[in-house]
Known about the structure:
Layout: H1 4-7, E1 11-14, E2 20-23, E3 26-30, E4 35-42, E5 51-53, E6 56-60, E7 64-67, E8 71-74
Parallel strand pairs: 1-8
Antiparallel strand pairs: 1-2, 3-4, 4-6, 5-6, 7-8
Amino acid sequence: MMSFKELRKKEVISIKDCRRLGHICDLEIDECKGCICKIVVPGCKSLWSMITDDSVIVIPFQCIKQIGPDLILVDI
């Protein structure tokens, strides 16, 4: 099991263009199912389709392809 403290130290990378998106700053959790629905990363204006406001990128958990020791690879 991994804590949020450990998860937020990992850098989020897009596998489509190898872009560094940053580090996780928040999570959206489904309380009924007890699982993570989305990860939240500080914003990047070039990823307009995933931006909910000017300051964050919300990435659905299904888009996470791999969580490694230092990186989280996402397909967005």
